[in-house]
Amino acid sequence: MTRRIWDPQTGECLSILTHDHIVRSVAFPCQDNPQCVITGAQDKKLKIFDLTRGGAAATPSQANGNSPVTPTTTSEGHEIGVGGHNGSIKSIVWNVDYNIITTACDDKTIRWWDLRSQQLISSYKTERDITSCELSNTKVESTDPGIISVAAGNTCIFFNAGRPGEIIKKVNFDHDVASVAINSQSGRFVTGGGKDTWVRVWDFALEKELEVLKGHHGPIWSTAFSPDGKIYATGSEDGTIKLWKACKEPYGLWR
User: Fold this and answer.
1) Rounded CA separation 253/242 (Å)
2) Where are the domains positioned within the chain?
3) What is the CA radius of gyration of the chain?
4) Most exposed among 41, 99, 156, 227, judged by the fewest C-beta atoms under 10 Å?
5) CA distance linking residue 147 with residue 128, whole number of Å
6) What is the dotted CATH code of the domain comprising 131-255?
7) For the chain, which ranges sit under pLDDT 70?
8) Which stretches are WD repeats (predicted)?
9) Cα separations in angstroms, 142 against 46, 102, 132, 146, 185
10) Measured distance CA(54)–CA(76) in Å, rounded
């Protein structure tokens, strides 16, 4: 089993990282020139790879929120929190503090890990299987840590990305939700349906449904806002990705 690092401009494979099992998730820190990548797999292992120094260790002086600490690694990576997951790791989120990692696991648990200590620092158990776990990319201010949005059954949980494990809001629905994304600028969030295949737009503060959009013909497993918050995308099991306008003014081809 492998993970490959690709050049997005040329399509060239830059690096091949080996793994003992199926890789289900991968994440880079949100930096201009990320030096490491972290992966989660079917074998319940969370691994970090140093992409620039051939497996050399980061020094303790690098332990700050602006750059992630990279433990001593080999070509097979370094495992974080050995034995800490009881199911395959389906989602990874790199927090605003680059030394904090959030994982969503098939054991119905969200976990927060500190790369400096390589220890679990917080966890949250959901009642239903987790189908989506994402960090918002629309921020009110540059210092805003963002919100981690989780979909699990008929519930969406919104966590403060700057405070591991701190719940901002928990919203229950009368239907299952397969995915969720939030726009912090507009105060709205979007959910993708499971069985009903509908896209719904909600007011975050009032927890009020504002729109119901139809067009997909299968469960909607992924939703995401554009960085400017003016459009959002939904990805479905029907094999399509749809773009929806979230603003009133003209945008791109929309008038």
Assistant:
1) 14
2) 1-125, 131-255
3) 18
4) 227
5) 21
6) 2.130.10.10
7) 1-4, 7, 14-19, 53-77, 139-143, 255
8) 82-123, 213-245
9) 29, 21, 25, 10, 12
10) 11
pTM value is 0.84
How confident is the model at residue 3, as a pLDDT?
A: 57
DSSP state of 116: T
Nearest to 35 by CA among 9, 73, 61, 83: 73
* Euclidean distance between CA atoms 105 and 102, whole angstroms: 10
CATH code of the domain made up of 1-125? 2.130.10.10
Two tokens, residue 36:
């490491």
Sequential DSSP letters for 48-103: EEESSSTTPPPPGGG-BTTB-------TT-EEESTT--SS-EEEEEE-SSTTEEEE
